[in-house]
Amino acid sequence: MIAKRTVCMLVLLLGFFSFAFAELAISAEVETSAADGNKVNIVITPMETSSIYIVQTSMESGEWITFRETRELVFSRNIDNDISTQFKVIALDKNRAIVGEAFSEKITTKAKWFNINRLNRFIALIVICGVILYYIGRAKKNKKIYLRPIAGLQAFEEAVGRATEMGRSVLFVPGIMDLDQVETISGLIILGHVAKMTARYEAELNVPVSRSLVMESGRETVRASYISEGRPDLFAEDMVHYYTDDQFAFAAAVDGIMLREKPAAVFLQGKFYAESLIMAETGNSIGAIQIAGTGSPSQIPFFVTACDYTLIGEEFFAASAYLGDDPKLLGSIKGQDIAKAILMACLGLGVLFETFNLHFFKNLFAGS
Asked: How far is CA 364 from the centre of its chain?
């Protein structure tokens, strides 16, 4: 009887100590693969005597770098491709004394040529690019490409013609920012088209700028336009001239030009801030025909209020395609419009299917 009791006690004690001193372990498994790295799921097998774990990862130099101190047992981390990586977990007790260490297997991941989870994006890319290339091909074959008429763009020639008839100048302001802003670049592209019109009609062109780089780019743009129209003799360097980088000092200088010279046409095309309303109101007060264009949502209301025509957002960026006859630009604009129509149709179908609790259509667009 005593022997049986002794055996039972030894079994119970062995079970208790095996539970209390369970072996610490850590494992790592690759979940997803991508060109720029891989997501690895890390699982820690805990110790009874510890609830705080320091997790480290190996470096190519052989050093261990701590990247996480946690109580969680499951988490993930991204690792680089083609580098052998190992994880280490250090278990701490409540006094932050080390009570155990464990290492994972070494893993090396490779980038995949194709991620099946992103197949929907690949199909969307092919469809959108295909539509754009199709319309570029149509434009190159001289087939008529219909683009929605934009009143502000159709008024460009009218504004320059009016200035010519009145014997007054055309004022063009390409915003107040430098060439690192896409709106400034778009404004200079539009300046090239306006300069061709002023060269054709022999109208005086005045282009004040607030950045030195914009001045040099503007001069080259205007010079190229006058040469293309066969009137290099009408071009002068001081058509494009610099005033100041200061926002409101530049606005005051432009207002002074308007009040002194009273241009018949004013083009405000580029990146603008608070000075937009100051310039637009002054142009309105002298009776000039004003055509504004910007991608800044906060300034559009002021231009709409004070100007005769306003190019809003995308209309401003697409102006070069409308004003020119480059088939690549025309086809790109048309293709993008069709792609947007497809996306809007997909959005409408998604709302409809979700309304009736049908999720298959939404799942087509899910992916990592």
From this structure: 24
Tokens of 161: 């013609």
Taking alpha carbons only, the member of 308, 328, 330 closest to residue 319 is: 330
* Local mean pLDDT, 10-residue blocks, the chain (368 residues): 48 43 69 64 83 83 84 84 84 85 84 76 91 90 80 90 94 94 92 94 95 94 95 93 94 95 95 93 94 92 93 85 80 89 93 91 77
Position 78 scores a pLDDT of 82
CB atoms inside a 10 Å sphere around CB 228? 13
Q: What are the phi and psi torsion angles at 57 (to 5°)?
A: -125, 150
* Selection from 176, 181, 242, 235 nearest residue 203 by Cα: 235
Task: Identify the DSSP state of 182.
Answer: H
Tell me whether residue 4 is in a domain: no
Residues pairing with 39 in the sheet: 32, 78
Could you list the residue range(s) of the whole structural domain that residue 77 is in? 22-103
The verdict on 93 and 43 lying in the same domain is: yes
Domain shared by 192 and 83, yes or no: no
- Which residue has tokens 């308007």? 258
| Maximal CA-CA distance, the chain | 125
Q: For residue 27, give the CATH number of its domain.
A: 2.60.40.10
Per-residue tokens: 241: 């001239």
Beta strand spans in 240-332 (E)? 240-242, 265-269, 289-294, 309-312
Residue 6, pLDDT score:
52
Cα–Cα distance for residue pair 38/53, rounded to 1 Å: 23
Residues 230, 262, single domain; the answer is yes
Q: Which amino acid is at 305?
A: T
Which DSSP symbol is given to 286?
Answer: T
Query: How far is residue 360's CA from residue 70's CA, in Å, rounded to a whole number?
Result: 38
For residue 117, the one-letter residue type is: N
Does 307 share its domain with 345?
no
What does the block give as tokens for 273? 């801030």
Which residue reads 């306003």 in tokens?
310
**Which strands make up the sheet holding 52-58, listed edge to edge?**
64-70, 52-58, 87-92, 98-103
Q: Which amino acid is at 306?
A: A
- What is the structure's pLDDT at 168? 94
Q: Are 89 and 101 in contact (CB under 8 A)?
A: yes
Kindly state whether residues 180 and 257 are assigned to the same domain.
Answer: yes
